[in-house]
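Sharing in case it's useful to others searching the archive later.

Someone asked me privately for the predicted structure of tripeptidyl-peptidase II, so I'm posting the question and my answer publicly. Question first, with the sequence:
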Amino acid sequence: MLVANILALSLLTALHATSGICKLLSLPRSRALQLHEKRDVIPLGFTLAGPASPETTLKLRIALVQNNVDGLLNALNDVSTPDGADYGKHLSKTEVEQYVSPKADSLTAVNSWLSANDLNATKLSPAGDWLAIELPVSKANDLFNADFSLFTHESSGVQAIRTMAYSIPASLKGHLNLVYPTTSFPDPSASGSTFVPLKYIKRVESDSSSIPSPLPCGNGTTPACLQALYGIPTTPAVNPSNQLAVTGHFGNIAHYDFLQQFLIDYRPDMNSSTNFTVVSVDDGSNDQSAPSVTEGDLDIQYTVGLATNVPVTYIAVGMNYTDGGLDGYLDMINYLLAQDSPPQVLTTSYGFSESSISQALTNNLCNAYAQLGARGTSILFASGDSGAGCTANSTAFAPTFPSNCPYVTSVGATQGFSPEVAASFSSGGFSNYYSTPSYQKAAVAEYVAQLSGAGTDTRFNVSGRGFPDVSAKGDDFRVWVGSPFASYGTSASSPTFASIIALLNDRLASAGRPPLGFLNPFLYTKGVAALTDIVAGNNTNCNNQGFEATPGWDPVTGLGTPDFAKLLAVVGL
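And my answer, the predicted structure tokens:
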């Protein structure tokens, strides 16, 4: 009997150290608990280091079930669809919160459960659908029938405490949406200066030592190059209420003196003292003594430097949570939702691998973007710089978040000029979480019809939400970070496209009209006539696998690049 017990214990230990851990964790310790979320295998690159210390304090977030998400999404569609009766009639903060505030019985059930377990919750979101609690690992394991363990990403060294499964009381089903961070793992690239992707940056010689080219883009991508390519006006914006916001994550700094020198060199027609505002989320800092890691400076220089005189705000998101999770994303969007007058345009140059995040958490964040879109904000995200996205064995492509979300505008990249072609690094593909939204079904179907064996190709999901939606130049951007650098990536394309939308909003405001808000229903209907289709190039950098740019929408450059004059025309100005 002793030998049998030892063998059983050894077997249990071995199972705990493999991806089979989830099977053990899925067995409830109490009939009062029901499995709520689980992950079948440990994410690629992570290994189980062992159980987390029982005394370690976990900072967990609880999402409550929102009362009418379908109503919110219908309202978003109504205010965003051109020629609709409610187009442009964006919702107020109060109206949005009425859709997403938890029902009274949900609040009672969750708060009673927390109180019974001696836990105090802090409200995190303006609608009250997110709460925060703190408790030791030992208590969390008992409360959620979980096994919080320490996982290490082998190549980056990133460590995170996560569980492969957790349960909640049966009485909370329909009231408690999810607990985070539990089964969502950090993206390993979060430990660098960019998320997805790892941007290629090279130093270039000072422009003053080079021979000037008569071509607008002959000396790299500058504001003059982009103004020439896309017809971006230099006329200053005149409406101070028209705001453009840039998010900065993971310690990325935007330097005031670097911006000033950038304007002197590349926008000599602007006042070189033109600046931006900084707000802090999660104790974020825009410490001017910190060294540049390019992203913050790139985003600010190409919003301030293109959206002439549009007020720009840099949202510095702190690093209170250092394992690369989504806490900063949650807090940033909740910060904006709490504002009475959020910015009309938001651009973000960071993202995650879709598969690293649970679908429940992805849904919650995506619905938060829908809330902001319904209030009139155009939300743009860089699609990523990993092409179609390689997995370890290259049997499937890897879509990115938040570009997979149907309620944001994903921006891919082009390269070159006369003509532009798809940038090989431009991420694009099809979501495995979201089906093709109605606004892009016709465009995506036309592309899929060209693919050989699309219905049986297991590398991607042709019935998924396709991205990117649009694109803009993403190569050889000249950035001033103490000396001139050249930067490559969709993280340059997104602030470029966002600046164009901000300038359009300024013209709309002067005409007494609302901002464009959620862009995609407009882009895939009226807007497509104001975009230049990119028909050459590909993102086949995944062992020579990927997608080709073709006539019409494609999962490399989307619908194409902007033409400001044509966009003005299609919005009726």
